[in-house]
Amino acid sequence: MKKIYFVLLLSFLLSSSGIIAQIPNNSFEDWTSMGTYEIPQQWGTLNDYTASFNVFTATKGTPGNPGNSYLNLTSKALSTGVVVPGFAISGALDPVTLAPLSGFPFTQRPQKLTGKWQFMAYGPEAGFIAVYLTKWNSNLSRRDTVALRKYALPGMVMSWATFNITLNYLTGDNPDTAVIILSSSGPSPYVDSYLYVDNITFSGTVAGITEHSIPERLEIMTNPSNESFTFHCNLSGLYNSRITLLNITGQTLETLTPDTSGPDFISSFKTVNLMKGVYFIRLQSGTYSEVRKVILL
pTM for the complete prediction? Predict the structure, then answer.
């Protein structure tokens, strides 16, 4: 029953709320009364879906840090025994029209998501904060991921503290939409796990990548491909390098540690177990990072 509910929850998240210069109602000062409960304006929550159980996992906390209020996300049990995580989302798209259902477009390339938080996880699964920057690809009629980060909450923070979550960029494009997800629990929620959030904002800027500014260190030798992605790396001056194959959502599928006995490294990622579509190969060494898009036919 819990797994079924979580699948329904994810379906809701992927079809409910968009983002620019800053985040809508980022200080959670604005709330709308629904009679027996409130919802934060311009944020999607599960309160409408749990109201019939008189259970609300997204509530107004006071005072804010700073301000009058903050967002209190707490995992709670329904009378059926199902434990519902505290979820809030800003930025999901209508899958038919591609128009934001709430929030607004976002066209910048921020370095970090920052804000204030408190959190505690009961049980083995901590909550998370996820950020996705995407861009509509009119040529392929799909939405491409420009940057992302899913950050699992570490340990516990029992009093207000500042957080800084650095985004991982996959392309040099500017996005057109942002999605932010806040969760008090992971896929198997535990009662009373909580995440308090206030005054979230984007900060810093990551420069776009141009063809002339990309060092010729990572060359994809078979692209598109239907068997394997073979690549060549120039590792001169790079140390502790790793090469990673990512899917379109940024999930790591395979990682290689190159042989650094010489400046050149040639290898490949096998694709026999992969579905057709777009993937990314990333070369990393310290703060240096270079990404190439590859296509599996």
Answer: 0.66
Query: Which residues, in sequence order, are CB contacts of 171 under 8 Å at separation 6+?
Result: 135, 144, 145, 146, 209, 291, 293
Looking at residue 216, its pLDDT comes to: 63
- For 185-242, give the DSSP string: S-SS--TT-EEEEEEEEEES--PPP-TTTS-TTEEESS-SBSSEEEEEEE-TT--S-E
Tell me the two tokens of residue 3.
């797994």
Measured in residues, the chain has a length of 297
Residue 202, phi then psi, degrees to nearest 5? -85, 145
pLDDT of residue 162: 94
| Model confidence band, residue 8 (pLDDT cutoffs 50, 70, 90) | very low
Structural domain harbouring 288: 218-296
Q: Are residues 146 and 40 in the same domain?
A: yes
State the CATH number of the domain containing residue 168.
2.60.120.260
Q: Which residues pair with 284 in a beta bridge?
A: 242, 289
Q: Is residue 118 scored above 50 in pLDDT?
A: yes
Which tops the pLDDT comparison, 263 or 282?
282
What burial class does residue 138 get, using C-beta atoms within 10 Å of its C-beta: 0-12 exposed, 13-18 middle, 19+ buried?
exposed
> Measuring CA to CA, how many Å separate 232 from each of 169, 219, 246?
21, 5, 17
User: In whole angstroms, what is the distance from residue 107 CA to residue 185 CA?
Assistant: 30
Q: Do 292 and 244 contact (CB within 8 A), yes or no?
A: no
Same domain, 38 and 127: yes
CB 146, CB 134: distance < 8 Å: yes
* 87-91, 222-226, 237-241: segment of lowest average pLDDT: 237-241
